[in-house]
Amino acid sequence: MRPGRWWLWLLLVGTLLGLTMGPAIPAGAQDKPRYGGELVYVVPSEPPSYDAHAEETFGVIHPIAPHYNLLLRVDPFDKTGTKPVGDLAESWTISKDGLVYTFKLRRGVKFHDGSEMTSKDVKASYDKIIFPPPGVKSLRKESYRSVEVVEAADPYTVRFRLKYPEASLLLNLSSPWNWIYKADILAKDIHWYETHVMGTGPFTFVEHVKGSHWVGKKNPNYWDKGKPYLDGYRAMFMSSSAAQVAAIRGERAHIQFRGFSPPERDQLVSALGNKITVQESPWDCLNFVSMHHEKKPFDDKRVRRALSLALDRYEASQKLSKITIVKDVGGIQVPGTPFATPPAELEKLAGYGRDINANRAEAKRLLREAGVPDGFSFTFKNRGIPHPYEPIGIWLVDQWRQIGLNVKIETIEASAYHPMLKRGDFDVAMDFQCGFIVEPDLDLVRFVSTSDANYGKHKDKVIDELYQKQARATDPEDRKKYIRQLEKRLLDEEAHVIYTLQWHRIIPHSSKVHGWTITPSHYLNNMLDTVWLSE
Amino acid sequence: MAISHPIEQTAPVAEPTAVGAAWAAIRDFARRRTLGAVGAVVVLVMIVVGVSANVLAPYDPVAVDFGAMLAGPSAAHWLGTDAFGRDVLSRLIFGSRTALLVGFGAAMIGATVGAVLGVGSAYFGGRVDLYLQRLMDVFLSFPLIILALALVAILGNTIPNVIMAITIPMIPRAALVIRSSALTIREMPYVDAARAAGFGHLRIILRHMLPNVVAPYLIMLTAFLSQAILLESSLSFLGLGVQEPTPAWGLMLRGAAVDFAEAAPWMALFPGLAISLAVFAFNLFGDSLRDALDPKLRTL
Amino acid sequence: MWKYLLKRFLLMFPTLIGVAVVTFLLIRVIPGDVVELRLSGDRGAASQAAIDAERARFGLDQPIWKQFVTWMSGVARLDFGTSMWTGSPIWDEIKLRFALSLQVAVMATLVAVLLAVPLGLLAALRQDSWVDYAVRVFSIAGLACPSFWLGILMILGFLVIFKWLPPMVYTPFWVNPWQNLQQLIWPALAVGYRYSAVATRMTRSAMLEVLREDYVRTARAKGLMQRLILIRHALKNAMLPVLTVIALEFAFLIGGLVVTEQVFNLNGIGLLFVQAVAHRDYTLIQALVMLVAGIFIFVNFAMDVMYAWLDPRIRYR
Questions:
Q1: Are the beta carbons of A497 and A289 closer than 8 angstroms?
Q2: Which residues of B fall below an 8 Å CB-CB distance to A?
Q3: Of A232-246, B213-227, B265-279, where does mean pLDDT reach its minimum?
Q4: How far apart (Å, rounded) are the C-alpha atoms in residues B38 and C16?
Q5: Which secondary-structure segment (H or E) carries A380?
Q6: What percentage of chain C exceeds 70 in pLDDT?
Q7: What is the rounded (10 degree) CA torsion for A118, A120, A121, A124?
């Protein structure tokens, strides 16, 4: 931009920001950031290795993400967590046919060892993610199947060439897992990043004491001038949720970025009053019920529909939200995000209607029709995790009791649960999904018949086709239409799975913490560059 | 333990010759061991409550009633309700059944299997003894939590499996103690005499050895009872014990009970008290029983 | 006596090997292995080929006996390998946690001894008086309170009454003793009180037994001062079984404080155990079991040595 016009730009950006996000920003974010201080936060898990490309727990992101940058990131102030903005990429263009994405990189970005970050680092990192050599783990490479090649056109230009257009690519490139590593190091030892840290991020690595804590300190040469605000941070690993609450309550920690339960929130608020600020959001995680389609009587869609019709989701939304981390009644996309189901349409789906007595009468009729006797008994397999699996399990069984089914809960030890689902060793089981960005491709791919995570083993060509269509639709309105059709097929007509309530993320944090906005995912927004502490 | 202790006194209750004599023994116990008698009464009450839970409990212990969730103690719900509106009193009453089942199940099996192994080991001696002792050593030195974690992960956490997880570490302890008691009998001349007279192993064991390990057996049993109840609650707290929606005291202390410790203290207070009271009573009774039966046997 | 001790010493090894075999087999029967758990995550996206490759990297594709031999030959050289979950050497995973667990165990044992010995003596000297009753009720009360409950109540008490919380992160004693004690004294008290119950009971019954022995009665009859008798004769003889109980409990405390560590957020061996099992981290579980069982077996042996030394019946054998 030309000098002299900067104020105009500022005005424009400022107005836009104010218009789009004004209400979403927590009070205080507009204040002038204060420099200094150490942010102390609790992490309820722990990093197995340090390489986010190969891991799938927030225990890696929360303590380590501040050491790195991404190519794109999700706007740290966007409450829906669906808006990609540049991180190391300054700008980008997409070719008309949607097959070539060209990214211009920022200049003068330095790794913590002082060397400059260029396009070859981005290429090396993405090659490791998309085309890992044998023996190298990359957990999300399937999401980049459309990518044919990544090119470093010149030191500050990176180009992604696609085999076919894909609506979700930009968001996939904003994935919080895709840290940019240093090409030279990867060339020497591609496993180096599993046990070491070397990034371009706002904080440099100080120490990791296993099982105890992780410390980072301010990167004085950070490319984004004026950031970060904090002098450093300290992440404390704590597995017990009671201890986590105690840490916040005893003011030994400012925040825990995953989420607390409603009673824990209430306890903190009543104990600390206005020293606590609470941010809440629908959470891109969900428990749903999978029914094994090869086992009787769950091969019959009338039975599956009946199980869904039995649920009083609206009452549950009110009551369960007082005791565990669920709240909204939603469809196959998180409420409030671009492709979410409008409430009026949602109520038309089986089991989402407002008249619960009519629903249950219908459920009983369907069961009779399908020849399922009154008092029919089956086992529901749940996972041994207190929130929200156990409360949802108790609720489900009670709801099914009300249409004359006698359901027993069998609780599977937390780590034995996925192997159980994988073996298909169940009639009806609690299933689970959790995404890092709300994006139909990411959230729905598991319902494609051939997916490894299709534990109920349904075979449905219609779903497969609709998935394909929405993934390649370039017009958002078309995409919406396909998604609605897929939703109706999945949850209503065939009732392949039964959605319960959307998870609800609750972050009660010290009122001293500013510049951090909740999103629907606990994997997002943990770079801490925008976070600051007031006195 | 390395040394065995000879038994000087034998158990009065081990010889139930007449009802009158038994009554006299009980009266004597109550008079001389006041604390123990108090414990015994509590245990008896608990058993009665557990057995007649269906009659006593005002509500269905697993019935969810969102209308009444998190209600404090009232006329309708004497001890309040939990996060699902389930009646705490009813869950406590049915929970005593679970506690007794796990407690008695684990203690009986643990002490009995231990006794069989201990007596067998002592009686046969030699190789049998050596191998059995090594096996017992292995299980004794095995961290309990690993056994419990592994068993629950392999078998799932139904009540029988939880009982098994609690029982296995008890067996070597019981076997050790009973073996040392049995060893002293084994050395008695009349056992050798019986052998010389050509009596079978089984008969000698049943006639001569078993009656003499009744005292340590009973003491072990009462001690295990309280340990089993405590262990079950600890396992439940870790999510490895009995599972929802089964009413069980340890389970009632977990999850929501901790979350609501201040907002709805009745949820955690009453089951906590129930556990403590039960363990306390079993211990008082067991202690006094030990004093009465054998002041020297103290290997627990 | 030396022959007896040698036998005891040699017997430690079959026990350890037995523990190793049982652990090795047991954890491989648990459904789900470390590779499956790490690769499948929440979306179960890993391909079978990737899983097989990872398994081969850990040597999990080998026959069980071969895996066992490989592991045992490492153990024989005191090389426990690397954690399958984090990839770091086992000793790096264990050392800090072991230091913490050891310290809590030592402190808790101290608390238990300081409570148990005086109380047990008192109860024995005043058998069946109200003092005896009070001591017994006090000690059984400690036993009757589930340990996690006691811990949660303590933490809640600090927060509600004092608006204070012990430090949440472990500082080694040699770095900052004050910080260290502030954190560890509370779990040590909670655990120590609980374990004093058994030791108190043991002290009491051991004392009662000794007090009935002829030589003590004789001494009493001769009119020696009560206190002198106690110290000179009774206490010395009664201490052996008490010591046994305390030593064995100490060995148990090192790996057995899972619940307490969770409630007080201590980064110790017990919690590491639970995590290792949850991750199916075979190498780490194996190393931990060997460590904890080894300590237990060694303490047992040490007690045998003590007995051999102090008990003339064995000493002159």
A1: yes
A2: 63-64, 66, 69-70, 83-84, 152-153, 156-158, 239-240, 243-245, 254-256, 258-263
A3: B213-227
A4: 44
A5: strand A377-383
A6: 87
A7: 170
C169-to-A246, A248, A253, A487, C255 alpha-carbon distances in Å: 13, 14, 11, 47, 19
Instruction: Give pLDDT tens digits for B37-68.
Output: 888 898 899 899 988 888 888 888 888 888 88
Q: Phi/psi at A512 (nearest 5 deg)?
A: -75, -20
Hey, what are C155's tokens? 């933490």
Please give the ipTM for the structure prediction.
0.82
Backbone φ/ψ region at A4: left (φ over 0), alpha (ψ -120 to 50), beta: left
Look at residue B11 in the predicted model and tell me its pLDDT.
39
Cα(B130)–Cα(B210) distance, integer angstroms? 21
* Ordered DSSP codes for B42-60: HHHHHHHHHHTHHHH-SS-
- The secondary structure of residue B66, as a DSSP letter, is G
> What distance in Å separates the CA atoms of residue C57 and residue A135, rounded to the nearest whole number?
8
- Is the CB of A249 less than 8 angstroms away from the CB of C152? no
Task: Give the mean pLDDT of C20-46.
Answer: 76
Which of the 8 DSSP states describes residue A282? E
B183-202 mean pLDDT: 77
The average confidence (pLDDT) of chain C is 82
Residue-wise pLDDT for C200-218, tens only, equals 888 887 787 777 766 666 6
Give CA–CA dist B5/A203, Å, rounded: 66
Distance CA A342, CA A23 (A): 21
Which residues have C-beta within 8 Å of that of residue B112, sequence separation ≥ 6?
B217
Task: Report the phi/psi class of residue A44: left, alpha or beta, with left for phi > 0 and alpha for psi in -120 to 50.
Answer: alpha
Bridge partners of A411, per DSSP, are: A382
Q: Which pair of structure tokens corresponds to residue A331? A: 């469809």
The enclosing H or E element of C278 equals: helix C269-279
Per-residue pLDDT tens for C247-257? 878 888 887 78
Q: DSSP secondary-structure letter at A351?
A: T
Contacts with C, B 189-248, CB within 8 Å? 226, 230, 233-234, 237-238
At A510 the three-state DSSP class reads strand
